[in-house]
Amino acid sequence: MTLRFDKLGVVIAVIVTYAAFVAPFATFRANRIVPGQARSILEALPPTLGALLLAIVIAGGIVALLRTSLILRLVASMIALVALAILIGAAGGFLTPAGNTFARVAPASGFWLLIFAFTLLLADVLTRLNLSPWARVGVLIVAALAIGALLVSGNWNSLSILKEYAGRADSFWAEGSKHITLALGSLAAAVVAGVPLGILCHRVEPLRAGVLNVLNIIQTIPSIALFGLLIAPLGWVAAHVPGAAAAGIRGIGTAPAFVALFLYSLLPVVANTVVGLAGVPRAANDAARGMGMTDRQRLFDVEFPLAFPVILTGIRIVLVQNIGLATIAALIGGGGFGVFVFQGIGQTAMDLVLLGAVPTVALAFAAAIILDAVIEMTSTTRRADPA
């Protein structure tokens, strides 16, 4: 009988083989800043657990490599991910000497590659299963609850990133609140300003090229440079405009970060509004005119609902972009998870860098999944329209 290999599975199997047998699974450090000592799966775990994890990831790699059923691939990927999540915590407890509060154990490249490989396998299965938008959101909620349960259980408390969190719990949530406020606040301001501007550009064609060109130029300015360019004008406003400083406007801090994120957000919102309105079928507009609708009625009752999925796609781009860019705001005192990233870089403490980077990536990933689901749900009516 001839074995049939899955193309994506070959890539996953190669990654799993390298991660399991060549790359280190965990890194042990005597303290938070000294160079780490790499440990393989069998070195990082008690013998029984190490052998069990190796067996699980090898079996998962074989399932991915062969053209197996979707259910088997789903089960294999989930078992592998759960085993990795639980046993990396066990590695932290196993490698940390009893009573030692200075030692640090962190996931190494092998662990992250295995997580990537089996997440890729799981994502491929879920895509092939063609889940409904609500089902995809449900999978996200289940994953979030599982991670929350592991955090609450204390299974990961021996890992270095959780030790960094333990000493900064209050500031972590405060900076997280600033990060989300910056990302969502600048998005809301961009939607309020950008959607009407996009409608205006759609209706007034001579205005369209000029506005989009200016927004394109803004988009090409590096984020750090734009933050720096805003320091002087906002500092002048704070010094010369009554009440501006009391309102929180100053040369550094949240104000320039908010303005910069707002400016970066305008292009996707405006451009997608223009594209969405331009894509409304002419037959729909003609039918609305034939029914005696005014321009305003056609805009809000016909054109905007049909263009909304495209506009929402621009909003999705902006939200994911802003969650990432808000990290840079820490360089000018804007707060956010970037505070931990840049503190960690300054102290050569990679675990502190991860304390800021991991929740940023998780937020962006969750936002993308949720908004993708919303876009698909809002697109259903448009796809069903014969016009």
Walk me through this protein's architecture.
By secondary structure, the protein is an all-alpha fold. 75% of the residues lie in helices and 3% in strands. It has helices at 7-21, 41-44, 47-65, 70-95, 109-129, 133-153, 160-166, 169-203, 205-220, 223-240, 254-278, 282-290, 295-325, 338-346, 350-384, and strands at 26-29, 37-39, 104-107. Strands 2-1-3 form a 3-stranded antiparallel β-sheet. A hairpin with a 7-residue loop joins β1 (26-29) and β2. It is flat and about 75 Å long. The mean pLDDT is 87.
List keywords for this structure.
single chain, 387 residues, mainly alpha, 3-stranded antiparallel beta sheet, 15 helices
Quick overview:
The protein is mostly helical. It has helices spanning 7-21, 41-44, 47-65, 70-95, 109-129, 133-153, 160-166, 169-203, 205-220, 223-240, 254-278, 282-290, 295-325, 338-346, 350-384; strands at 26-29, 37-39, 104-107.
